[in-house]
Each structure stands twice: as C-alpha cells, then as structure tokens.
Amino acid sequence: MIELFGWNVGVGFGGGLIAIVGALLLAAIGQYIGKTAIGYEWIFAAVAALVGAWLGSEAFGTLSTWGPLVDGLYVVPALLGAIVVGGVVDGAVRWVTGGTYLEPRPI
Description:
Layout: E1 3-4, E2 7-8, H1 13-31, H2 41-59, E3 69-70, E4 73-74, H3 75-97
Antiparallel strand pairs: 1-2, 3-4
Helix pairs in contact: 1-2, 1-3, 2-3
C-alpha cells in the first residue's frame, strides 16, 4: 500500500497508477469540450479528479466497497468520484476564468 507522510492511503501502486491515468484522461477530455480561457485548466481538473477517485474508493466506508477491486482501488466508486469532483472543479475554474462549455471548438 502507498504511504504518504506516514499515512496509509489504502491503495496499492497499481490502483494508484490507474487513478492517476484516469484522472489525467478525464482532465484531457474536459479540456477539449467547449472553449477554455487558459491553457492549463486540465491541471486543476486532474488533481480534483484524483482526489475524487480516492474519496470515491476509500473515504465513504461501505458505500465505497463495491464493484471491481484493483490493488486496493474500487474502480466504479473511484470513477464516479473522479467524474463528480473533477467536473465540479473544472466547471468552477472554467467559470472563474471566463471559459464556456457552450461554444463549439474545432478539433
């Protein structure tokens, strides 16, 4: 299990790697929806999605212990937590910086 500053996070290396890759993927998807005002909104969304993944997988007791388990990470609750927390933070950052989700953006 991964330990940060003497605190057991509750997730192993494989689960942590899945959470990090998933958070970066969700942040990248959010960056390409609508019009961004700054180029690094994805960083805030990625950190928030990583925190949301940990909250979803570990912090809610029995509500967090369902679905497939990969090295200490409950995948479905982690995905739901990452989408919710990452989406809220991405929306807040987008609103504060003047970006929008409504304006189409060419790929």
